[in-house]
Write a structure and sequence with these properties.
About 40% of the residues lie in helices and about 15% in strands. It has about 300 residues and is an alpha+beta fold. The chain has three domains: about 60 residues, TATA-Binding Protein (2-Layer Sandwich); about 160 residues, Ribonuclease H-like superfamily/Ribonuclease H (Nucleotidyltransferase, domain 5), CATH 3.30.420.10; about 60 residues, no CATH class. The protein is globular and about 65 Å long.
């Protein structure tokens, strides 16, 4: 890391760290190297392989070049639930994984919540985490009304998600200032979360990668987020006296019934109105598809007020 136009950085639990435009490098005390940025591939091809490992064809999982094995401990895992669901909130959760937690998570059966089909098991694991490891859990729930307002203000779902990731990370770091590494599932350009990071989050090495739920810390966060999402969905269903389905299919019929019974504004309180389903439901119920601030496609021009 000493060759080239690198600027040194200070990163907790790292032997050294450096950065240059398009590339951030961290060498942890564990021996693990984390490389992030647009210049990762060139760095691996022209520096890591020929000058450091002497091996060509190094496999990179996500943005990490693993030269030693395990992820740094302690670390924070972050994940979300509800992004792809028409009804209900979006929930972002984080879990601080510390020494001794791996065995407990394995005993509980914690893994990516999408792989756990039993709602009862999700509830059991989440309840155990919230009871036994409460300070290590951080959950941010954005009810539909709040979520819709934030998407309108920030301009995109991914910006809201990045803000949520940065918020739960910052809140956990308030309690665990010794943690210097975090892992999150990559849902967009790395710069989105990086721009949203707050003071403490900027001092942490944040690794973003696809299928991050394979990491125990992220798996625990995934379970916490899904558990809260299911709870909120149950509450919303009781409030409107209708079972609200999860996902983005089979949602039009209950949505249309509620619009007919209560009015179109009900969607802002129970659903994510940027989904194109909103326009379809409003049109089917005889309302202007642009009524709730959703963009109006050309083929809906006959709904415009004259």
């Amino acid at each position: 890391m000493q060759s080239g136009p690198y600027e040194p950085r200070q990163v907790a639990h790292a032997r050294c760290a450096a950065a240059k435009p398009g590339l951030n490098l961290v060498l942890y005390n564990s021996g693990k190297v984390v490389a992030q940025g647009k210049g990762v591939q060139d760095w691996v091809e022209f520096v890591w392989e020929p000058e450091i490992t002497g091996e060509v064809g190094t496999t990179i999982q996500g943005r990490t070049v693993d030269n030693s094995g395990p992820e740094p401990l302690p670390r924070i895992g972050i994940d979300e639930s509800g992004k792809g669901d028409f009804f209900g909130p979006m929930v972002v959760a984080a879990f601080a994984l510390r020494q001794g937690d791996l065995e407990r998570l394995a005993t509980l059966g914690a893994r990516d919540s999408k792989q756990i089909k039993s709602a009862a098991k999700i509830n059991r694991i989440a309840t155990a985490l919230l009871t036994e490891c409460a300070p290590q859990c951080e959950i941010l729930c954005l009810p539909p009304e709040t979520y819709n307002r934030l998407v309108g203000k920030m301009g995109s779902v991914n910006r809201v998600l990045a803000w949520g990731h940065a918020t739960v990370l910052e809140n956990l770091l308030e309690r665990f200032s010794d943690i210097g590494h975090a892992v999150a599932d990559q849902f967009g350009p790395e710069s989105q979360i990086e721009k949203a990071l707050k003071t403490k989050g900027k001092a942490v090495s944040l690794e973003q990668r696809h299928r991050a739920e394979s990491d125990p810390a992220v798996a625990a966060a995934s379970i916490l987020a899904r558990h809260r999402f299911v709870q909120e969905m149950d509450t919303l269903s009781r409030q409107v006296n209708t079972t609200l389905p999860r996902g983005a299919t089979h949602v039009r019929k209950p949505a249309e019934e509620l619009v007919h019974r209560v009015g179109p504004e009900i969607l802002t309180r129970i659903a994510k109105i940027h989904f194109r389903t909103t326009r379809q439901v409003l049109e089917a119920c005889g309302h202007d598809p642009a009524l709730l601030g959703t963009p109006e496609p050309k083929d809906y021009s006959h709904f415009r007020k004259k």
